[in-house]
Specification:
Layout (H helix, E strand, L loop, with lengths): L6 E5 L3 H8 L6 E3 L13 H15 L7 E12 L2 E3 L5 H11 L3 E12 L5 E12 L4 H11 L18 E6 L3 H4 L3 H10 L6
Parallel strand pairs: 1-2, 1-3
Antiparallel strand pairs: 3-4, 3-5, 5-6, 6-7
Helix pairs in contact: 3-4
Length: 196
């Protein structure tokens, strides 16, 4: 009898990440890790998202043995400054006013931890987004429609946020939404997971 593969677990409460992972057609569970997501002093975006992706996976390792745990984290940078989730309508409006006409970089980290072996694979995927020039009325209409207050950059690319952009550049557009599926497939294949 062939060996069974560990259970796949998504270390996230994000509906967008769940929807992305469903694209692979693999059964998986979901658990929300409880970690401090604050950046360390002087930490750059790539280092931050890879550290937090790994920390999210490790946070669930003891309670989910015999699992392949997927951790992911994302930050947005503009001119080397990290922009956080706005949290409120007013801050979201200010973010979109600042992003209007600009090109920004999303850094999305992903980690796959095998709790059976203790081995992990981790990387960060950059993805550039160029915003259209947005007027105050467009910004207000968009915010009222999508209410993206829990999203870095104040938009939901999987919804009406797509109307705010004029160009994308990067390996995997899924990374913009929060889960780099191409890198994840590389990691899963390396673990012997069978994919179509």
């Amino acid at each position: 009898m062939p060996p069974t593969h560990p259970t796949i677990l998504l270390a996230s409460s994000s509906p967008a990440r769940r929807t992305l992972l469903e694209k692979l057609g693999l059964p998986f569970g979901i658990a929300s890790p409880d970690i401090d997501e604050a950046a360390l002093p002087g930490e750059d975006a790539k280092t931050l998202v890879t550290r937090l992706s790994r920390a999210k996976a490790l946070a669930l390792a003891t309670t989910h043995p015999d699992s392949l745990i997927i951790g992911s984290d994302q930050v947005l940078t503009l001119d080397n400054e990290t922009l956080s989730k706005p949290g409120t309508h007013e801050r979201a409006r200010a973010q979109l006013e600042r992003l209007s006409g600009q090109t920004v970089t999303f850094h999305t980290g992903i980690c796959l931890l095998n709790t059976r072996t203790g081995q992990h694979q981790v990387t960060a995927e950059p993805f550039e987004v160029s915003f259209r020039h947005l007027n105050p009325e467009q910004i207000e209409r968009y915010l009222l429609a999508d209410q993206p207050y829990g999203c870095a950059g104040s938009f939901k690319a999987e919804a009406l946020g797509i109307t705010l952009f004029k160009r994308f550049h990067g390996r995997d557009p899924n990374s913009l939404i929060g889960l780099p599926l191409m890198a994840l497939v590389d990691f899963l294949l390396a673990e012997g997971v069978v994919l179509p």
